[in-house]
Amino acid sequence: MTESAFVHAYEVAGADFVNAGRASTAIKETLKHMGLAPALIRRVAIAAYEAEMNAVMYATRATMTLRVTPAAVTIDVRDEGPGIPDLALAMQEGYSTATAEMREMGFGAGMGLPNIRRNTDALDIASQVGRGTTVMMTVRVS
Ligand SMILES: Nc1ncnc2c1ncn2[C@@H]1O[C@H](COP(=O)(O)OP(=O)(O)OP(=O)(O)O)[C@@H](O)[C@H]1O
Ligand SMILES: [Mg+2]
What we know:
By secondary structure, the chain is α+β, with helices and mostly antiparallel strands. It has one domain (6-140): Heat Shock Protein 90, CATH 3.30.565.10. It has helices spanning 22-33, 38-58, 87-90, 100-104, 112-119; strands spanning 6-13, 61-68, 72-80, 122-128, 132-140. The longest helix is centred in the middle third of the chain and has 21 residues, at 38-58. The two termini are 19 Å apart. The site of adenosine-5'-triphosphate has 24 residues, from α2 and α5.
């Protein structure tokens, strides 16, 4: 049997720090309207925000696709960008290639990907150097 699913896609523009965070805010509002538990929404919102900011900071553009079923909330962030040459290194707390400008804006602690891992039930990252990165995140509803 096929579960009913809500699916929505959000576009994210690289280097657009003015609009950065809008997609994850929209996702959070959508989940609130659906009446999902605040603790679950909080986890999804943190993961979505970190993945969106990484797309803004490092990629040219990205599409974030939200999918909500009775069982889980999944978000795929598929970007066109430089890719991640060493995923294990990128996952380490404190590792960051953020520029001085990004650090001045408060980014670059190297905590985004570890935060995503901590707040999700499943995290898969597929990356091709010179092409882009896809971050697939799942938070189970129950
Ligand atoms: N979508 C992406 N494309 C290319 N590189 C990425 C992407 N996401 C993460 N990275 C690389 O992985 C590193 C670690 O990412 P992470 O989100 O953990 O930290 P950060 O973005 O550097 O700092 P913070 O998230 O704490 O502001 C980044 O500095 C960058 O080198
Ligand atoms: Mg980050």
